[in-house]
Specification:
281 residues, alpha/beta, D-Maltodextrin-Binding Protein, domain 2, Alpha-Beta Plaits, 3 domains, 10-stranded mixed β-sheet, 5-stranded mixed β-sheet, globular
Length: 281
Amino acid sequence: MKLSLAYLGPTGTNSETAALAYSAWLSDSQQVAATLNPHPSIALAMQSVIRGEADRAVVPIENSIEGSVTVVLDTLWRSPKLQVHQELTLPICHGLLSYADSLTDLKTVYSHPQALAQCQQWLENHLPQVQLVPTKSTTDGIQLLKNEPTAAVISAPRAAKIYEIPLLETDIKDSPDNCTRFWIVSSQISDRGSHLALAFSLPHNAPGALVKALEIFARRNINLSKIESRPTKRSLGEYIFFIDLEGNSHDRQIRDALADLAACTEVLKVFGNYNLLPIAG
């Protein structure tokens, strides 16, 4: 059996590292071979699954420093097909790649917005003079470095080896415990796993509307491991609530909770059950 895995490329991104780790797990534990297909954005990687061009996508969902990757949440909400199947967590390192001789020579730093945000304090303390330029991925700016001796890219140290770029700094992240959760999503139904992902919108913005929804889980002693709101993009003050909880959709208390939740929400979407994979970076 072979699977195609979509992810945010090009070569050397943290998403590729996650895809490689997941591919190795598939080979070792499932005897499944995987081919890796890079895409220029996270949204396009997910769209390739929706269109049937890839079997699964490996996408970042949350970073311990910067929080959720909102494009993943928004794409899940808009798509009727995508389901979350598995989760893996990897430690993230951010090196500073450049042909410059020293930090004082730098005028520009390129990287993905998430990486720039995860290194914000370091950049403010060590490179307050530089212009920060967001790119589609942590490796997109590398091709610019040969023609810009005063530029640097924040990327994984692995990318420095792949592209043979000097490392000015090995790791500039703002926290020693910088980790990112990655979800493996596909268009197949996912009803196995220890955790459940879902989202809902409320029929009206009224006092106690959200409390009423959340009490459904509290009454049944269901643990919510994460809750986050995103704007509906319809009107200011209207939100979609994304929830991760512990439990399986086949459990009696989870089934009853989802039935009650459907009765008091405008739209309820269940993104599927998923397991936490024992993959170490």
